[in-house]
Amino acid sequence: MAVSPESGRERPVDFRAPPPSPVASGRRSCVTNDDVLTEFLESSLRVPDLVLPDKIFPKQKFIENPSSVHFDSLGAPGSDSASRMLDSIARVGCFQLVNHGIGCEFSNSAMAAAAGIFLVPPEKRAAAMRSPEKPYGFEEVHGGEEDESSELAEEFMWCREKGLESAMKRIWPLGYSHFSDKMAELQSHVEKIAERVMTVLREKCLDESASGNNGLKGEGCAGASIGTVCCILKHSKNVLDDDQWASSLRYDVIRMLIRGADYSHALCLHMCDGASEFHVYSKKGWVSFCPDKHSLIITVGDQFQALSAGRYKHVVGRPIVKSETEDRISMAFLYSPPAHAPASNDVECGGGRNTFSVGQQVMVAIALSLAYHLFVYILNKF
């Protein structure tokens, strides 16, 4: 402690840190081989030139048309329709069904009624817009008329759902009932076709599994919670040049690949008469072909992939319609087979068979015994 000569009192010693050393203004390193060090740092810190592929988007591959199967041949004795369908599914992911019984006049009438949905003004569509809670209604359209990535089609998801019906009757009161009746009748025909196709394919899968050719399993497919869903597309008139068309198509492909698993289904039946091309998207790539006239194109979904133990892969199908004169309508029905009805002697409840407990059996035995003694007493009395 230091003593102040004026006051005679002690005061603490000042331990303030010394001022910082002056910083040299030069940037020269003190290393002797400065040039060598600089060259080493420049070479080691340089970001390597990455050679990326010119095109990361999958290329479109045109193929021959997949197999065409007559509806009447499904399940017929000696028919090879099941084998041809599965072979085409393994190669392309789809097949064509002809002579299916849905007349052109009837299908055109349903599509004309469906076209009225897209006349609903955009400001009214908000009440029936698709969402995670409501997987039906209008699909939100991204991009404007001047945006090269705008979608090629407007989309509406229809099903027999009370929520959709009430919402659409509020915003389209004059036309929705007529449209819904037409769609319900068309869906009934489509489901009968899909049920027959699914039965033939399931039996073929079971036969292949029994023969030991592959690991197919015969479990049934779980039905969708809201039943069959129909995706209605309005294909706009082609007013884009080649570059804009290619850009829009790429955007549409990416969106379809992302949206492909939205609805669990076994089969998807596409009604797209008048389509110039049909595209099939999968993990293998992107293929396209020109569909036969008046044919149903059937693609397989995730439920069929599970049924086949992964041998037949889930794909996404999309019709491409190029029309310079008018808008066109196409439909895709996403079908899930209903749960198998239990046999009459195998009534199930809550996933297990109904049985009587020991206590219930004892009560029944006592009741029968009392009834027997009462009957004997009455018989002897009278």
Order of helices and strands: EEHEEHEHEEHHEHEEEEHEEEEH
CATH topology of the domain at 60-74 and 84-130 and 138-143 and 153-335: Jelly Rolls
The side-by-side strand order for the widest beta sheet comes to: 4-5-12-9-14-8-7-6
The CATH class of the domain at 60-74 and 84-130 and 138-143 and 153-335 turns out to be Mainly Beta
Report the C-alpha radius of gyration, rounded: 36 Å
Low-confidence stretches: 143-150, 341-355
Determine the fraction of residues in helical runs and give it as a percent range: 25-40%
Describe the fold and architecture.
There is one protein chain. With 382 residues, the chain is α+β, with helices and mostly antiparallel strands. It has a domain at 60-74 and 84-130 and 138-143 and 153-335: B-lactam Antibiotic, Isopenicillin N Synthase, Chain (Jelly Rolls, Sandwich), CATH 2.60.120.330. Helices cover 34% and strands 18% of the residues. The strands form four sheets. An eight-stranded mixed sheet has the order 4-5-12-9-14-8-7-6. A four-stranded mixed sheet has the order 3-11-10-13, with helices on one face.
